[in-house]
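User: Hey, my collaborator sent me this sequence without any context and asked if I could get a structure. I don't really work with proteins. Can you help?
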Amino acid sequence: MNATHANLTAVEGSDATEIQVPASNGTVAFRAGRSGRTWSTPVYVEGSHEVTLPNATRVGIPLLSRVDPGGYDSTVEDNRMTLYWDEIEDGSIDVRFYLLRDLYIFGGIIGISLLLGAAGIAYYVRQIRAAKEKREDVGLDVEVDDDDVGGDGPPPGMR
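Assistant: No problem. I've predicted the 3D structure and written it out in structure-token form, which is a compact way to encode the shape of the chain:
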């Protein structure tokens, strides 16, 4: 591919494409493929960078997403999140994002788990109370505090 357009030149060699912008403050945009819910690209030039995520995706919850390098700002317009870095010198930009529907799925799983846990605890407490009442009805209610009825010490023969 060889292309020239208004002070912008792009020349593709064997596996590399070289883009020359007219000035140091030139802007270049490109699309890059992704693998699943992750996206990565090397930092080709130092300066500010911007990444626009696919529709209905987000970053921000540590277990579901990761952005490297940190120190980015983000905005959401038309249900698309854009990440901004003021200055990146080298390395790579790595983004792992999640779909918004994932929040509902994980939220539902956590909610159901909490409800089941609360129901299990309530059942356990009711069973303990029922066993205690049954023990009292049968007359097996023996408390450690009741051993010394008169308060005068151990029974005769154990003094």
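In plain terms: The mean pLDDT is 82. You can pass these tokens on to your collaborator as they are.
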